Amino acid sequence: MSRRIINVLQIINAGKLFLKLVCVEENKMVAEIERLVTIETPQATLEGNLAIPSDALGLVLFAHGSGSSRFSPRNQFVAQELRRMGIATLLFDLLEQWEAEDRRKVFDVELLADRLMSATDWALHDSETRSLPLGYFGASTGAAAALIAAAELGNIIKAVVSRGGRPDLAQEYLQDVKVPTLLIVGGEDWPIIPLNREAYEILPGPKELVIIPGAGHLFEEPGALEEVARLAGEWFKKYLGSKGT
Description:
The protein is built from seven helices and ten strands. It is α/β, with parallel strands linked by helices and 245 residues long. The chain has one domain (36-240): 3-Layer(aba) Sandwich (Rossmann fold). It has a ten-stranded mixed sheet, sandwiched between helices.
């Protein structure tokens, strides 16, 4: 049986809340709640998509890279795979549409980190997510924002995964990132590999650097993104633990 949504059981609140049965493997289906959310920050109103599989062991917040959004097909794919592993996901826009057109804001990783921390605060207070351990998945500049936010928030964040990240943009914060951090880089992404190797040496907490042979910056090669999702899922399952930890 192919991995696909089998049936939409119920639609509530004018299409903003969905309950689905999702096939995760042969002859096995799980319930999954999807919800559109709005996150208010001092400077912006951010839109997001929250999806929670039944018995979720944690929640991963996605910080997308430059020029992208919560609709990034790569992050959408990784999020789908994480949910198959029992991990809830929140994909949201770090910038409003008009802000995303300003290249200065796109590369303002401290601003992006502030937005990520606002989303984290939202998750800590929402009735459906406040009991879930939290992790970050960041890509490109979003990875720098995730590392900064993890340094600022300490043990609130349980794990970070960076895909093709720019940890050099968070250089001054790296020594304060105690959270377990997985750095994933494509083997053909030559400008980014040394930046991640240098960051790996600085990070003081549990850490791992994985270079995927043959993969470029966007992991578009056959099987590359699947490997990213597998590695990320294993990392989050290891460090997010159960809801009771």
